[in-house]
Amino acid sequence: MKKTLLFALMCAMASTLTVKAQITLPKVWDFGNDTTNWPLNAGTNVADKTIDQLGLFSKSDGTIVNFGAITATSYTYSDSYMSANRLQLNGSGYPSSPGFVTMPNQRYLYFDVSGTATVTVWFRSGSNSAARTVFVTDGTNVLGEATTDTAGTGVIFTAKKTTSGTERLYVYGDSACNISKITVTSGTLATATVTQYSANVFANGNQVHVTNLKGNTNILVYTMNGALVNTFNTKSDIIFDLKPGVYIVNTKSDQGTKSQKVVVK
User: Fold this and answer.
1) How far apart are CA 200 and CA 256, in angstroms?
2) Structure confidence by residue, pLDDT tens digits, 90-125
3) Burial of 231 by CB count in 10 Å (0-12 exposed, 13-18 middle, 19+ buried)?
4) SS3 readout for the chain
5) Domain extent listing, the chain
6) CA–CA dist 67, 57 (Å, integer)
7) DSSP bridge partners of 27
8) Dist CA 262 CA 229 (whole Å)
9) What are the pLDDT digits (tens) for 46-76?
10) In angstroms, rounded to a whole number, what is the distance separating the alpha carbons of residues 249 and 232?
11) Which residues does residue 256 pair with via DSSP β-bridges, in sequence order?
């Protein structure tokens, strides 16, 4: 009992540090041309990470490791915007059963907006023969959506946030789709829940990857029952093997503390 209580307290103390900040809009995520923030392959195999204030989420239980990637393909949209690359999402924001939900639970983008805002999305189908739909929701309501034709012609659509408070918005597709650009205007982009500590932890097969480390980092690996199975102290990214199972990986450095669940197969 003492061990279980101690582990629960440890996990609570190891929650991700956050910052409260606001960014003057308009905010632009140009996956098609911004190779500084979005180089080729950015986003591949993410579990949950933030790039340039935009959250990229794969799946909390670690069963999805092919979130998507920046890949090279050129296209010119109807407003003359030209993209050299794309953010290629590798699947739907929800499982096929029960189907569409306004609160996605896999393969989605997210950000927090304070005040009224207009979100504009440039995207294409991830298939040359199938229509695809992209949604913008607040987790409860669909704020905007659009569907391509079967030829994969580029689509530009807007979504409206009309409330004055701070809310999290989600962008995701009904299947694989290619997003070229997202802009947010007429409001303030808040980062109330964006991670300040940038360590990234994810599993790929029987290997656990701990990346984006900055400075000396202490890594503790626990089973879900609270048993300590491994410890590391490193100043650089690390990969280690674990037996199949579900684990909690805690990372701690001068940058902060983070706790994340990983599923090892």
Assistant:
1) 12
2) 999 998 887 898 999 999 999 988 888 999 999 999
3) exposed
4) CHHHHHHHHHHHHCCCCECCCEEECCEEEECCCCCCCCCCCCCCCCCEEEECCEEEECCCCCCCCCCEEEEEEEEECCCCCEEEEEEEECCCCCCCCCCCCCCCCCCEEEEEEECCEEEEEEEEECCCCCCCEEEEECCCCEEEEEECCCCCCCEEEEEEECCCCEEEEEEEECCCEEEEEEEEECCEEECCCCECCCCEEEEECCEEEEECCCCCEEEEEEECCCCEEEEEEECCCEEEECCCEEEEEEEEECCEEEEEEEEEC
5) 2-16+196-264, 22-190
6) 7
7) 184
8) 14
9) 888 889 889 999 987 778 888 999 999 999 9
10) 11
11) 253
Euclidean distance between CA atoms 208 and 248, whole angstroms: 11
Alpha-carbon torsion 130, 136, 137, 143, what sign?
negative
From the list 197, 216, 195, 203, the residue with the least C-alpha distance to 261 is 203
CATH placement of domain 2-16+196-264: 2.60.40.3080
Residue 97 carries which side chain, given as an amino acid letter? S
Q: pTM to 2 decimals? A: 0.64
Arch. (CATH architecture) of 22-190: Sandwich (2.60)
